[in-house]
Design goal:
Helix content: 25-40%
CATH class of the largest domain: Alpha Beta
Distance between the termini: 42 Å
Number of domains: 3
Order of helices and strands: HEHEHEEHEHEHEEHEHEHEHEH
Radius of gyration: 19 Å
Number of strands: 12
CATH superfamily of the largest domain: Rhodanese-like domain
Shape: globular
Length: 319
């Protein structure tokens, strides 16, 4: 009996340490370099409905109708965030609590039902009548701001933006900073339904797989089979095209031009008329890809929210 208890204790401790290591690795981000200037198709800035510049943030930070949201989370905000910013993570507004299981389980990592999401966003003070400017990191992050934006857009928010170049660009532009996030001012939020125009779910993808062009936006070692974030197995979705998330950016972390995005897709054999599904490990980096493609004129695009965490459990993979 004593040996059994000891073995269970060791097992539980190992799982605990594994969870800590996973969380730490997720917080560190991709850490890859962007595309060098000499390889760019165009030096034009990327413009789109979901994007604002760092200078725009500097001009409007502090406006009563603007809410800054640090999507890197409260822990990162403790070190430093923009003045007046509240903090959250995509996990906090998704189905990521213990009641939904763990990454890879059927209900984990999705957009909550309207009533639950309304309560979460209301507690965070995310007023649908104000402009929300979301902060994340690009090359040194995971595109957390894009995942939050993608969810808010599906929930009916129309005035929601992310910053070209992310938090680093806003800080470099001279937006005042503070240590620790500001307290949110709760508001009433009513979400009637979730618009799934750009939401891909596991069942739909499995049932109509051949109708879609699949893009894997993870790193090359993940694509080739490395298990880095406690996935059930390594590899990639069958026939998936490898287009890493970091290829969206210049070396300074800002987005490449629309001409660059179009060339990248053309080289990958993907056209604007294709039905395109982007995925990563948990639908974060792929949310950034989906939003960029949408802004670049690729209308039939989806972010696979549960992504490889779920697919590795229920679907076939290639290596």
């Amino acid at each position: 009996m004593g040996n059994k208890v000891m073995k269970n204790s060791i097992k539980n401790f190992g799982m605990y340490i594994g969870a800590i290591l996973l969380a730490a690795s997720l917080l560190e981000g991709c850490g890859n370099k962007g595309v060098p200037e000499e390889e760019l198709v165009s030096k034009d800035s990327f413009e789109g409905q979901y994007l604002v510049t760092a200078d725009y943030v500097k001009e409007h930070a502090g406006d009563e109708n603007v809410i800054l949201v640090d999507c890197r989370g409260a822990d990162k905000a403790k070190r430093e965030t923009l003045e007046g910013a509240i903090a959250t993570t995509w996990q906090e507004i998704g189905t990521c609590s213990e009641s939904y299981g763990a990454a890879g389980d059927e209900g984990w990592g999705k957009i909550p039902e309207p009533s639950e999401l309304s309560e979460k966003l209301g507690e965070l003070g995310m007023d649908k009548n104000k402009e929300l400017i979301l902060l994340g990191e690009t090359l040194n992050g995971w595109g957390d701001d894009a995942r939050v934006l993608w969810e808010l857009a599906a929930a009916g928010y129309t005035e929601v933006k992310m910053v070209d170049g992310g938090y680093s660009a806003a800080k470099e532009a001279g937006v005042p900073t503070q240590k620790g996030a500001s307290d949110p001012e709760p508001v009433e939020v009513v979400i009637d339904s979730i618009d799934k125009t750009h939401v891909m779910e596991t069942e739909e993808l499995m049932n109509n797989y051949d109708a879609y062009k699949i893009i894997d936006v993870r790193t090359e070692d993940e694509y080739k089979g490395a298990v880095k974030y406690d996935e059930a197995q390594g590899g990639h979705l069958p026939g998936a095209v490898f287009l890493p998330y970091t290829d969206l950016f210049r070396e300074n972390g800002s987005l490449r031009s629309k001409a660059d995005v179009e060339k990248m897709m053309e080289d990958a054999g993907i056209s604007k008329g294709d039905k395109i599904v982007a995925y990563c490990t948990g639908g974060i980096r792929s949310a950034y890809m989906q939003l960029v493609l949408e802004m670049a004129g690729y209308e039939n695009t989806w972010n696979y929210d549960q992504s490889f965490w779920r697919w590795a459990v229920v679907g076939e993979v290639e290596k």
